[in-house]
Amino acid sequence: MAIEVRRMRAGDLGRVMEIAGSLRHAPHWPESAYMAAMDPENTPRRISLVVEDCGTAVGFVVASLVPPEAELETIAVAVEAQRRGLGGMLLEALLVELRGKQVGEVSLEVRATNDAALRLYRGLGFVESGRRAGYYADPEEDAVLMRLLMNTAG
To answer: Of the listed 109, 135, 136, 141, which one is catalytic?
Structure first.
């Protein structure tokens, strides 16, 4: 089983769109948004990674950077690849990249009922920093705001 986390490439877009489209609570961005996430000249700068299993992308993560801060914009793992620790692998690889970019704080928002994501984020040291009441629709629910303070010292 060859699992690898790497930078997202244009050739991944079809699979990334397929994964996002198959997950009800994943953002359904247009292809142009993912293209922008891969463009090093785009503002804000973004880091976009995929996790590959035997040569096929099975998950992805995108974060925006405005050092010393970053925001986790989306993370998704294909249904058939969930519960294997791949989301954690993606997030850990992202955090390594962010530390290298002198990011000291990462923020995110997540549905209040997304227990698996909340466990993952808490396990990596994220703490709740607030809530946005009724932020999500279909169904309506609160967003839990979370943040992680990172040590960027060498």
So the answer is: 109
